[in-house]
């Protein structure tokens, strides 16, 4: 089946640090990748949609300058949390889609903890 | 705007029983609906997709129904096992879907006791 690899799985860093998270589709080409944020016991909240070769589309309330997304190839999208602060601590999950009504394939998430 | 509701309270059942989870939606007529399983600290895993013209879909011990009149989907796990314990999410295509963007429900946590 389709596999999505997300790295790193856990990050603990000081306030003010920028953190980059990678999302790779290992055995298929993903025309679209999605970035979600999930707080404890809550559902996935879509942050942005990333399309290869074009600018990401951000959901309302998500700061594009805070959460930089780069989708350089059909198999790699990165999310950079710039100048992270404690309120940015969360579980970030990426997924890759192949369009239409196909299911999304999720990475295993990145637990980000900002001290 | 579209709204998806799942029972936020955990569902506790005995091993061997059938678990039934509910997903209700409003302000929308989706072409399909998907169900995912999420284990703690992991990303969701796709389980089943059911289209609007399908009443029922089965996969091994899983069964999903889709009632477009009631705007409801039911997710059943028969002969439940402790390993089925997880959070189950329903997801609908985004109302302004230009790809396969999904909107997720809040999920229902299932606990199967041995």
Describe this structure as you would to a colleague.
Helices cover 0% and strands 51% of the residues of chain A. With 115 residues, chain A is mainly beta. In chain A, the strands form two sheets. In chain A, strands 2, 4, 5, 6, 9, 10 and 11 form a seven-stranded mixed β-sheet that branches. Chain A has a four-stranded antiparallel β-sheet with strand order 1-3-8-7, with no helix packed on it. The radius of gyration of chain A is 13 Å and the shape is globular. The mean pLDDT of chain A is 92. Chain B is mostly beta strands and 114 residues long. Chain B has no helices and eleven strands. Chain B has strands at residues 3-6, 11-14, 19-26, 32-38, 45-51, 56-59, 62-67, 72-77, 86-93, 102-104, 108-113. In chain B, a hairpin with a 4-residue loop joins strand 7 and strand 8 (72-77). Chain B starts with a strand and ends with a strand. Classes of the chains: A mainly beta (115), B mainly beta (114).
Mean pLDDT of chain B: 93
What is the terminal-to-terminal distance of chain B?
A: 41 Å
- Low-confidence region ranges of chain B: none
Structural class of chain A: mainly beta
Short description:
Chain A has 115 residues and is an all-beta fold.
